[in-house]
From TrEMBL:
PROSITE patterns: ALDOKETO_REDUCTASE_1, ALDOKETO_REDUCTASE_2, ALDOKETO_REDUCTASE_3. PANTHER family: 2,5-DIKETO-D-GLUCONIC ACID REDUCTASE (PTHR43827), NADP-DEPENDENT OXIDOREDUCTASE DOMAIN-CONTAINING PROTEIN (PTHR43827:SF3). The active site is at Y49 (proton donor). GO terms for molecular function: oxidoreductase activity, acting on the CH-OH group of donors, NAD or NADP as acceptor. It comes from the Bacteria. Belongs to the aldo/keto reductase family. Pfam families: Aldo_ket_red. InterPro entries: AKR, Aldo/ket_reductase_CS, NAD(P)_OxRdtase_dom_sf, NADP_OxRdtase_dom. Keywords: NADP, Oxidoreductase. This is Aldo-keto reductase. Residues 15-261 form the NADP-dependent oxidoreductase domain. The record marks K78 as: Lowers pKa of active site Tyr.
Length: 289
């Protein structure tokens, strides 16, 4: 959990952290506080998740109860789709910090590539970065085309692209493009929202290594060089999900997992983000905290 990777701007980021998508605001404080207590240093949230207030309370508790400093933690959140655009992003950044009770962020991501807006949003992130308000900036759910367009219109290369990534959906093309550009992949829903946990091939590997299925998947991410943020609200799972450093998957077993890729995304921007002529998704509309 203390192990870090160096981002393209030199900032060190933990390789494994806690995700909180689908964690209710009421549960977020406890999950985050427990994770920090058990050694997690990376916490990943988003305005869209509706739990920034709970996450902020958990961070505060985690720092106080464990004698930590703010700088010991690495906090990521994301620009809400409805807040995109230059001025709006800057304005809402301040509100986000208030919700989280923080004075700066470690990583700020554009949550989804909202058409006609994401370039302006990126310019705002570049300003926040230059002003020292965020230590690194990045993107999320950007395919190769979106990333190319962004790179053509930006001064700063994103440090991270956070994508849905799990054994069933390995985004091989995007991953190799990002490797080429020095952008690191971070996996959201690394356990496939729980679905990848029932995969029979990975179950067999779990038996072979005497590990849980989740641990095999998270170890796979690590050996792929992918930063990973499993979500759980159960403390025993939060702890177990971080215990992946006492075994190594063989090259053959890595190849076996690589073959499970079906390129099946559960969620993608065309169904989700705002596009000209498309109504915003109800979920996006509803969540405002
Ligand atoms: P819960 O929060 O009840 O523990 P992902 O991070 O891919 O979105 O997956 C999260 C889902 O997987 C959640 O439903 C979470 O449930 C469940 N989960 C997380 N860790 C484990 C684990 N070690 N074993 C089984 N289920 C897990």
């Amino acid at each position: 959990l203390q192990e870090t990777t160096k981002l393209n701007n030199g900032v060190l980021m933990p390789k494994l952290g806690l995700g909180v998508w689908k964690t209710a605001n009421e549960q977020a404080e406890e999950s985050v506080a427990q994770a920090i207590k058990h050694g997690y240093r990376l916490i990943d949230t988003a305005k869209q998740y509706g739990n920034q207030a709970g996450v902020g309370a958990g961070i505060k508790r985690g720092i106080l109860e464990n004698g930590l400093n703010r700088k010991d933690l690495f906090i990521t959140t994301k620009v809400f789709n409805g807040d995109q655009g230059y001025d709006s992003t800057l304005r809402n950044f301040e509100k986000t910090l208030q919700k989280l009770q923080l004075s700066y962020l470690d990583l700020y991501l554009i949550h989804w590539p909202v058409d006609n807006k994401y370039i302006d949003t990126w310019k705002a992130l570049e300003k926040l970065y230059r002003d020292g308000r965020v230590r690194a900036i990045g993107i999320s759910n950007f395919d190769i085309e979106h990333t190319k367009t962004l790179l053509a219109h930006s001064d700063i290369t994103p440090a991270i692209n956070q994508m849905e990534f799990n054994p069933i959906n390995q985004e091989k093309d995007i991953l190799s493009y990002m490797n080429l550009k020095g952008i690191q992949m971070e996996a959201w829903s690394p356990l496939g929202g729980g679905e990848a946990l029932s995969n029979p091939t990975i179950k067999k590997l779990a038996t072979k290594y005497n590990k849980s299925v989740a641990q095999i998947i998270l170890r796979f991410d690590k050996q792929m060089g992918v930063i990973t943020i499993p979500k759980s609200t159960h403390v025993e799972r939060i702890v177990a999900n971080s215990q992946i450093n006492d075994f190594t998957l063989t090259t053959e077993d890595m190849a076996t997992i690589k073959q499970l890729d079906k390129g099946q995304r559960s969620l993608w921007y065309k169904d989700f983000a705002w596009h000209a002529g498309h109504k915003p998704n109800a979920y996006v509309d509803a969540v405002q905290t």
